[in-house]
Amino acid sequence: MSDYSLDARAREVLDFWFGAPDSAEYGRKRKMWFKKDAAFDALLRERFGALLDAACAGELDAWCATPEGALALVIVLDQFSRNCHRDTPRAFAADERALAIARAMVANGADLRLPTVEHRAFAYLPFEHAESAEAQRESLRLFGELAKDPQAKGYFDYAQRHAEVIARFGRFPHRNAQLGRESSEAETAFLLQPGSRF
């Protein structure tokens, strides 16, 4: 059920990302979500760049008053940041804020009040993106629960792959170059393997 007390900007984020509730794409996976596309990144920077800056500054925290508002803020911080600042350290700069909001959503049950499986999956992605064994355990738990729904196909597999990398290295080696971190020999060898980069 949609929350009609939602901030108009939060509604714009959700409609852009998931499609409007009355649209054909609503509640379905969308190709734009996990695809590297310079034109799409540029569109997000133009349309939502200022909103991302406001979210990073804590100016949109009031959105967390509703489940869908909190999710919109997570999407801005966890997803838009990756598109708008691709291949730079800023791509991950908002991860801690996104994870804190996601944790609060799970703690108060807001994730279970989201309208579709796809909405819930994006509420859980900050756990999957975290370079933390504890967050990865929670990611596996949450995506494991989500996987009970046939609509959630594929999400648990990606959660497992992320968790395995953190268990092995304690961080995501594919971020090293962007974050100015030196890769170990084992990480360098790992990065040469197909499918090692998310």
Automatic annotation (TrEMBL):
Pfam families reported for this sequence: DUF924 (PF06041)
Source organism, top-level taxon: Bacteria
SUPFAM superfamilies: TPR-like
InterPro entries listed in its UniProt record: DUF924 (IPR010323), TPR-like_helical_dom_sf (IPR011990)
Protein name: Uncharacterized protein (DUF924 family)
Organism annotation: Paraburkholderia bannensis
